Amino acid sequence: MEDNSNALVYYEKALTIQDTSQTTDHSSLTSIYKSMASIYKSMGNYSDAVTFYLKAIAIEEKELTSYSDEATLSNTYSHIATVYSSLGDKNNALLFYQKASAIKEKFLSPHDPSLLSIYTNIASIYLSTEQKSDAAKYFEKSLQIQETLPSPDYSLTHALRIKTAQIYESFKNYGAALQHAESYVSEARSALGSDHQTVKATQDYIESLRRLTA
Asked: Residue 193 and residue 71: Cα distance in Å, rounded?
């Protein structure tokens, strides 16, 4: 905590120097703002973190001259979205995750790994607000990326498959629910083994879905 406080004092002095300078170095200023935001975030002071991320964003949105600038802005959008999520402000969290994904989608492949966490976070927000169709859409986008990775995270795959299956189950679309659950078992059995806990639990879930369709 003391190190964070000392760092904040340092950055506040740097801001004072910027304020008294005859010319403004926007790159340095945004770097200071984001560093301060990151420190406030690590301290759990989310309101101040939002304040400084917004200051950085206000500059970055006016300085878009290259893909690199837009990529940087996309990352800042993602950071502030996580802070809004920590504050329980789902609307702003969703807004900034969508802004981040919109930039990445302009320049990157639909299966780029950097979109995975953004899509998953968007899906989770939709699910928490009972917008299940949109949640399923983004969980499936996440799964499409997961399937292209050379070393898939099977715990994440399980979470995505089961959440998506449960959404379809709630819609009484048991066929789609089964497809997702069975896909996980098919993907994970060879890597984890038939006796793995999540594989066995998913197999039990599959049996319960089959009983619903009988």
From this structure: 40
d(CA 164, CA 143) in angstroms, rounded, equals: 10
pLDDT beneath 50, residues of the chain: none
Over residues 86-105, the pLDDT tens digits come to 999 999 999 999 999 999 99
Report the distance separating Cα 170 and Cα 91, nearest Å.
24
Q: Mention every residue, 6+ apart, whose C-beta is less than 8 A from residue 94.
A: 81, 122, 125, 126
How far, CA to CA in Å, does 10 sit from each of 32, 36, 44?
10, 10, 19
Q: Choose among 70, 68, 58, 67: nearest CA to 30.
A: 58
Query: How do residues 150-171 score in pLDDT, each as one tens digit?
Result: 888 889 999 999 999 999 999 9
Tell me how crowded residue 112 is: count the other CB atoms within 10 A of its CB. 13
